[in-house]
Amino acid sequence: MRHFLFALLCLSVCAGCSKQSSLKPVTNTSVTTSHLSVSSVTSYYVNTSTGNDANSGLSATSALKTIQAGLNKTTEGVGATIYVAAGTYYERLNWPHSGASGAPITLTSYNGGTVNVDGSTTNSSLIPLLNVSSKSYIRIDHLNFTNDIQAFAKGIYIAGSGTDVQVTYCKITNVGWTTSATAVPSSTDNANPLNVVGTGTGSYNQIYIGSNQVYNCNTGYSEGLTLAGNVEIFLLENNIIHDIPNIGMDMTGHYSWTGAPAAVNYARSGNVRHNTVYNCVSPVATSGGIYVDGGAYINIEGNTTYGNGVGITVGCENNNYNADNINIRDNLIYNNVNAGILIGSNQSNGKVTNSTISNNSFFKNVSAGGYDGEIDIQNTDHLNIINNIVQSRSNVVVIALLNYTSTNLTMDYNNYYSLSGTSGTITFDWGGINGQGYYSLANFQSALGLDAHSTYALPGFTTATLPTPNLHLTSSATACINKGLPSFTAAPGEYDIDSQTRVQNSRVDIGADETAY
């Protein structure tokens, strides 16, 4: 079933994203997934305490000793399941074979035991704790990967080309370029806890990464979870990523180091949903909890991001390329160090194009203080900002940053609130577009024609107190309930932050939470 729905993802994303010159939501869909039904496969058993690699491995009583021995028992194109008993396995693993459609090769824990793959005492010549090179129809499930400290350390590293790869319920910790919590990295200091890299003319596709945890990894200039190069048709959901001293999740493109041809060298056609990302802050650069860097046709929806450098960032760091058709919708974004969202390329000949920020709840970001907005804009074209709650801890709500341009921008049906409690002192800094600032909502509306139907009022959150706000709407949230864009129609598969129907009455609510009121 999951295999079929991944195919639908590509069709729905490509069909749903188009240039938006008028005020309407783009209609990408998310993807519902379910576990595959698989045909009968051979089972192998591994037990570090009682096993022996000379055994057959065909039963728990004749278990193999090492995980690598279990993987080596598999055959190319033939499904198998390797059950690993609880324990710590001091190994670095190489995945030798692909499974088959409907009959994957699965590596999983036995009877729910805790399995730790530990690199602390092993030969680092095989740098990844688990290396997967151009393998398809594989499952990595309920395993922990820990203790790889070296230059260019890697946890789970999947590279090349292939299809139907799933990583579920894994924990990855203490994968880093150094053990020092205070070391400041240079651009050559990197570690990758969980990576999928498409390196060739054929893509890595139908990638599912769900319900994993990645934390306490010193990644340097790299990220906690990365999709790079020729990667398409992916779903990243229900992951928890935290305490990474840089970006939490990154869907990236147009970097020559991947080796992929330029025309397909970017992550595309995917959903990033219902993840929780927090405390991802770089000591040297802007770090988004969730980042799209040169990707295309990607939905970022229903996520919760807080305590990061920036809640969500969308850009393109490589000149002469764009990030295109990115939907940021139905997210909770609060108490990040700088802006809630930073969108737009920082390159002279690059933009974020045909993208939408809709039905998000921004709440008291810019915890570092100083002058910054809840929403910061760099180089964009055809950006829609609609149906969002924007509550600032200062009086600054939106900044069009200096030295950038934003063309064909639309904004409407947003609800603002700020420190002063009055719409007469709110700041829209338009320095990057026309060199002007607008210091009341009415002045901004009349001068530019933007936000014509937007309002200024307390949103009506259940608990508007940091550090743990409840950003659901109460029944008295009259400024936001049934006050969104009247013509709004939810995209196929689009839901609110709680996976509830996005439009429950005749009109959508403003913000990430849809009420029944």
TrEMBL record:
Top-rank taxon, per record: Bacteria
InterPro entries assigned: PbH1 (IPR006626), Pectin_lyas_fold (IPR012334), Pectin_lyase_fold/virulence (IPR011050)
Residues spanning the signal sequence: 1-15
Alphabetical list of SUPFAM superfamilies matching this protein: Pectin lyase-like
Sorted UniProt keywords: Signal
Keyword Methyltransferase: no
Identification of the protein by name: Right-handed parallel beta-helix repeat-containing protein
Lineage: Bacteria, Pseudomonadati, Bacteroidota, Sphingobacteriia, Sphingobacteriales
